[in-house]
Design brief:
single chain, alpha+beta, three-stranded antiparallel beta sheet, 7 helices, 19% strand
């Protein structure tokens, strides 16, 4: 009887140990590794926190639908950057919503310095033109960036001496400093930056004075 009881106790111990092992294994597998630098979406109102005390170490509130950039992974939480704040977020509050992420990335692109600069130039050169004419001005800049006989950055192309009259002028500097660029000009700049070229590789434009070329609005592209 004693031997049987001892055997049963050993067997129960083995089951308990196996259970702990399985739980630990599940805990390890429960976490998900997100690519560093990728984006995630918070699926509920919660907060970022610092370790080890997630209750006292609150960094900032993070609302449902907020998009954050992955900084570091762990088993049950992920370190993210949100609005300039860095902290941990429980993985159960993380989701991947491609539509929200793409919209967020598009907004980042629209406000990136290169696109902002291009948008400011577009507003100065063609702010009153239809969107097609604004994209065309942006395309001229991008075509120059790609061409071997021009500088290979947007800033260098725009600020090249004697090329674009508004570059460095008061109006353009004010648009950049106050960030008052029209949304439509931002969209035109973003489209050109992403490769939309409605002037077929042309690298010049001027007021339409009868010169041969592609006429869009009040400009001729050649």
């Amino acid at each position: 009887m004693f031997k049987t009881k001892k055997w049963l106790m050993c067997l129960m111990g083995l089951f308990a140990a196996f259970g702990l092992f399985a739980t630990a294994k599940c805990d390890v597998q429960a976490g998900r590794d997100y690519h560093i630098g990728s984006y995630i979406v918070c699926n509920t109102d919660t907060r970022l926190f610092t370790l080890p005390d997630c209750n006292e170490g609150v960094v900032t509130e993070i609302p449902q639908g907020a998009v954050a950039e992955v900084v570091e992974n762990d088993k049950i939480y992920t370190k993210v950057s949100y609005n300039g704040n860095i902290g941990y977020l429980y993985q159960e509050f993380i989701t991947i919503d491609e539509e929200l992420i793409e919209a967020y990335k598009a907004e980042l692109l629209a406000r990136s310095e290169e696109v902002r600069l291009l948008a400011a130039l577009i507003q100065c050169e063609a702010g009153g033109e239809p969107i097609e004419g604004q994209i065309a001005v942006g395309a001229v800049v991008m075509n120059r960036v790609k061409a071997p006989n021009y500088p290979n950055t947007i800033a260098e192309v725009i600020y090249a001496p004697g090329q674009f009259t508004p570059a460095g002028g008061e109006k353009m500097n004010r648009l950049l400093a106050q960030d008052t660029i029209k949304p439509i000009c931002r969209e035109a700049a973003k489209a050109a930056f992403q490769g939309l070229d409605n002037v077929g590789g042309l690298t010049h434009f001027r007021r339409n004075d009868g010169r041969a070329g592609i006429v869009i609005g009040n400009h001729v592209f050649y």
